[in-house]
Design brief:
This protein is of the alpha/beta class. The chain folds into three domains: 2-118, Beta-Lactamase, CATH 3.30.450; 127-287, Reverse transcriptase/Diguanylate cyclase domain (Alpha-Beta Plaits, 2-Layer Sandwich), CATH 3.30.70; 362-542, TIM Barrel (Alpha-Beta Barrel). The chain has an eight-stranded mixed β-barrel, surrounded by four helices. Helix 18 links the parallel strand 18 (446-452) and strand 19. The radius of gyration is 30 Å and the shape is globular.
Length: 543
C-alpha cells in the first residue's frame, strides 16, 4: 500500500483532533514540500502551512456541528522550496455524539500541474491573445459589476473606448507584423497610465476599452488627455521600422448615462465616432440627444427582435444563384440571411445585422447560419452553398475555432460549402484569419473573399491566406459596359486572379452586355439580380 501511494503521489492521513496529532502513510513526497516536515505531524502547524483562505475552509469543516460522519474535499495552496504548490485534501470527518469532530481521515495529493493548467485555460478564455489584456467578454463582465457597484454606493465611474488612428496606413506601409507591434505598444502605454483599480481590455482590432472606477465627468476628460498624450509622445519601434501613433477616444459617464454594460459600450462607441469626426487624436464624451435616443431605442428594439427570432427559429435563407460564366447555369448558391417577423413579413439582413453587430449578438446569428447551412447540405446532397461570416465574428479567435470545430464534426458536407469573409474582416487579424482559412481548407471547404477591391488587400496577401475565390466588389461591376475606367480595373483584377489560380465572381451583374464583357475578361461566375434573384424556396428546395 505504501508503494501504491508513493507511485500515485498521494499520502494518507489520520488526524486526531483531540490530541492534535497527524499520522501519515506514503507521505514522503508531500512532506518534502515543507521546510520542516516534522512539523506536519502537528495539526496546528499543518493549518499554519496552508494559505489563509484554505485555512478558513479547513476550520469550517472542523468546527461544523454534525452528528453523522461526512465526506469533504478542497484544494489549498502551500509554500515550498520550489515556490507555491497546490494540494488536494479529501477525506471523511468522523463525528462524536455531540456533533463535534473527532478525527479527519483521508488523503492528500499534489495537484499543482492540474491547477496551473486550469489557470492557464482561464487566462486564455478571458484574455486577448495578442496584447494579454482582458478580451471584450471579460471586460464587459467587469463593466457590468462596476456599474452595479457604483449604483449601490451612489458613486460614479466611466467607460472609455480608445481607437488607434489610421492603423490601416501602418498595415500598408510596414506590414501586419508592425501593426500588431503597434497595437501591443499602445496597449502597454495605456495600461501603464491607469490607476491600480482601473481595467483595460481589447474590444476590437484597433480598439481598447478602459473602465475607470470612481471617476467624475471632469476627471474623465483629464484621463483621456493623459492617455492620448502618452501614446502620441513617443514613436514606436517595430522590427519593420519606427512608427508614430495617435488615438481617438470616446467616453460615457456611469451609471448616469447608461444603465447596463451593453448600453455603456454602445454609447462610448457613439462618443468615439464624434471624436473621430473631428480628425485624429480627438476626444468626446457622450451626451444625450433626442435623435440619438430614438436611434438607440430602435437599435435595442431590433436586438430584441433578433433574440426572439433566434429563439423561435425565424431566421431563414434566401438562396441567390452564383452562375457559371461558361455554361450560364447555377454552380452554387449564396445563403443570404432573412428574418421572418411575427406577422409573417420577411426582412433582409440589412434590417438586423448592423444592430446585431453593435450589440454583440452577431456571434449567435452566425452560428445559427452555419448550422442552417449544414442542415440544408445534408438534406440536399446535390447542392453547394456559400455562407457568410460577419466582420465582427471574424475578429473573435475563439469563435473562429468553434466554427472550424463544428465543420469538422460535419466534415461529410464540408466539400460542398464555401465560407465567405469580407476583405476588411480578413485584414483585422491576418494571422488568425490565415489559421481559420487553413483549418477550413484542410477539412475540404472552399474560402472566398467578398467585396474584393473595396479595401486594401493585395493579391500577395490573398496568396498568403490561401483562399480559393475572390468576389469582385459590385461597385466596379455595375454599369461596367459604360465605364472604361472600371473595365481596365476589373480586367486587371481578373488577370491577376488567374495568375494566382483564384476563381473570380463578379457581383451586381446588371445586364447581358456586362455579363458578356465579363466573360470575355475571363470571370468565372456571375452574381446579381439580373442573373438570378434570391429566393426563399428555389426549385431544388421544393423538390
Amino acid at each position: 500500500m505504501e508503494l501504491a501511494l508513493l507511485g500515485a503521489r498521494e499520502a494518507t492521513f489520520d488526524w486526531s483532533l483531540i490530541e492534535d496529532r497527524i499520522s501519515w502513510a506514503g507521505a514522503q513526497e508531500i512532506l518534502a514540500l515543507h521546510h520542516n516536515p516534522a512539523q506536519l505531524t502537528d495539526g496546528q502547524k499543518f493549518r499554519a502551512w496552508m494559505s489563509e483562505n484554505s485555512r478558513a475552509k479547513l476550520q469550517a469543516i472542523v468546527e461544523e456541528l454534525c452528528n453523522s460522519d461526512r465526506t469533504f474535499a478542497f484544494e489549498f495552496e502551500a509554500p515550498s522550496a520550489l515556490g507555491i504548490e497546490w494540494l488536494e485534501m479529501r477525506g471523511v470527518r468522523l463525528a462524536r455524539r455531540d456533533g463535534t469532530a473527532e478525527r479527519l481521515v483521508g488523503l492528500v495529493r499534489i495537484v499543482t500541474e492540474r491547477m496551473r493548467d486550469a489557470q492557464r485555460l482561464l487566462y486564455l478564455a478571458t484574455r486577448d491573445e495578442l496584447t494579454g489584456h482582458l478580451n471584450r467578454t471579460s471586460l464587459r463582465t467587469e463593466l457590468s459589476e462596476a456599474i452595479g457597484a457604483a449604483r449601490a454606493e451612489a458613486r460614479s465611474c466611466a467607460f472609455l473606448v480608445a481607437s488607434i488612428d489610421r492603423l490601416a496606413a501602418i498595415n500598408d506601409a510596414y506590414g501586419f507584423g508592425a501593426a500588431d507591434e503597434a497595437i501591443v505598444a499602445v496597449g502597454e502605454r495605456l495600461a501603464g497610465s491607469l490607476r491600480a483599480d482601473d481595467v483595460i481590455g481589447r474590444t476590437a482590432g484597433n480598439k481598447f476599452g478602459v473602465l475607470l472606477r470612481d471617476c467624475s465627468e471632469r476627471e474623465v476628460a483629464l484621463v483621456a488627455e493623459r492617455l492620448r498624450a502618452v501614446v502620441r509622445s513617443n514613436t514606436i519601434s517595430t522590427r519593420a521600422g519606427t512608427v508614430s501613433a495617435t488615438i481617438s477616444a470616446g467616453a460615457v459617464c456611469l451609471p448616469a448615462s447608461a444603465s447596463s454594460s451593453q448600453e455603456a459600450m454602445l454609447r462610448a462607441e457613439e462618443a468615439l465616432d464624434h471624436a473621430r469626426a473631428k480628425g485624429r487624436d480627438g476626444f468626446a464624451i457622450y451626451t444625450r440627444s433626442p435623435q440619438r435616443e430614438t436611434a438607440r431605442l430602435r437599435l435595442m428594439s431590433i436586438a430584441d427582435e433578433v433574440v426572439a427570432a433566434l429563439k423561435d427559429n425565424r431566421l431563414l435563407f434566401a438562396y441567390q444563384p452564383i452562375i457559371s460564366a461558361k455554361i450560364r447555369a447555377p454552380a452554387h448558391y449564396e445563403c443570404l440571411l432573412r428574418m421572418r417577423q411575427p406577422d409573417g413579413a420577411v426582412v433582409s439582413a440589412s434590417h438586423f445585422i448592423p444592430a446585431a453587430e453593435q450589440l454583440g449578438l452577431v456571434h449567435l446569428v452566425d452560428r445559427q447560419a452555419l448550422e442552417m447551412t449544414i442542415h440544408v447540405l445534408k438534406a440536399y446532397p446535390a447542392v453547394n452553398l456559400a455562407v457568410n461570416v460577419s466582420g465582427t465574428t471574424a475578429a473573435d479567435p475563439s469563435w473562429l475555432q468553434s466554427f472550424v470545430a463544428h465543420v469538422r464534426a460535419n466534415q461529410a458536407v464540408a466539400n460542398r460549402m464555401i465560407v465567405e469573409l469580407t476583405e476588411t474582416a480578413a485584414l483585422q487579424d491576418f494571422e488568425e484569419s490565415a489559421r481559420f482559412i487553413s483549418g477550413l481548407r484542410e477539412l475540404g471547404c472552399r474560402v472566398a473573399i467578398d467585396d474584393f477591391g473595396a479595401g486594401y488587400t493585395s493579391f500577395r496577401n490573398l496568396q498568403m491566406l490561401r483562399v480559393d475565390m475572390v468576389k469582385i466588389d459590385g461597385s466596379y461591376i455595375r454599369g461596367l459596359s459604360a465605364s472604361p475606367d472600371n473595365q481596365i480595373f476589373v480586367r486587371t483584377l481578373v488577370d491577376l486572379a488567374e495568375n494566382f489560380q483564384l476563381e473570380t465572381v463578379a457581383e451586381w451583374v446588371g445586364s447581358d452586355e456586362d455579363a458578356n464583357l465579363l466573360e470575355q475578361f475571363g470571370v468565372d461566375y456571375f452574381q446579381g439580380f439580373h442573373i438570378g434573384e434570391p429566393q426563399l424556396e428555389p426549385e431544388w428546395l421544393k423538390r
